[in-house]
């Protein structure tokens, strides 16, 4: 029996910079010109404070069947640095548990809240796509 390695890669790249000991800048953060607070947007890796070890979240049935997948969730980032109210908006392939696993992974993320005009944004809409794969 050989060992399979589970790989989970989010759109956030799970903060390679944080894992290497780099820290996010302290300057006020702003939206990109094409973003607004009324639409979902990706969370830049530079704003991550903590990223989860998600290996244990990979759906067991999918591991057993060697199924890889992806999911996308929409969440709300609040001033407490956590993603809340995450809802699955896409899951491929459906029915394998990748949506639920992505919701659990997103709930473990911590990120620096956005500041606009020196004020912390109370509810920032975050789009969180995540790919799940098996390597080995």
Your description of this structure?
By secondary structure, the protein is of the alpha+beta class. The protein has a single domain (5-20, 39-135), classed as TonB (TolA/TonB C-terminal domain, 2-Layer Sandwich), CATH 3.30.2420. The chain is 15% helix and 34% strand. The protein has helices at residues 16-19, 60-64, 98-108; strands spanning 5-10, 48-50, 69-77, 83-92, 110-111, 115-116, 119-120, 124-135. The strands form three sheets. A four-stranded antiparallel β-sheet has the order 1-8-3-4, covered by helices on one side. It has a two-stranded antiparallel sheet with strand order 2-5. It is elongated. The two termini are 12 Å apart. The model is unreliable at 1-5 and 10-34 (pLDDT under 50).
CATH architecture: 2-Layer Sandwich
Strand content: 25-35%
Low-confidence stretches: 1-5, 10-34
Structural class: alpha+beta
Biggest β-sheet, characterized? Answer: 4 strands, antiparallel
- Give Rg in angstroms: 16 Å
Per CATH, the superfamily is: TonB
Distance, first to last CA: 12 Å
The CATH topology is given as TolA/TonB C-terminal domain
Main traits of this protein?
elongated, two-stranded antiparallel ribbon, TolA/TonB C-terminal domain, 136 residues, four-stranded antiparallel beta sheet, alpha+beta
Briefly summarize what is shown.
By secondary structure, this protein is α+β, with helices and mostly antiparallel strands. Helices cover 15% and strands 34% of the residues.
């Amino acid at each position: 029996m050989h060992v399979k390695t589970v790989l989970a890669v989010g759109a956030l790249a799970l903060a390679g910079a944080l894992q290497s000991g780099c820290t996010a800048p302290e300057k006020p953060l702003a939206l990109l010109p094409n973003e607004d607070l009324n639409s979902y947007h990706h969370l830049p890796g530079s704003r991550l404070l903590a990223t989860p070890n998600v290996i244990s979240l990979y759906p067991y049935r999918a591991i057993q069947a060697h199924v890889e997948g992806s999911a996308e969730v929409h969440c709300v980032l609040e001033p407490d640095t956590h993603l809340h109210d995450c809802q699955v908006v896409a899951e491929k392939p459906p029915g394998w548990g990748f949506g639920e696993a992505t919701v659990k992974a997103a709930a473990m993320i911590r990120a620096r809240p956005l500041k606009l005009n020196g004020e912390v944004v109370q509810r920032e809409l975050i789009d969180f796509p995540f790919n799940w794969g098996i390597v080995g």
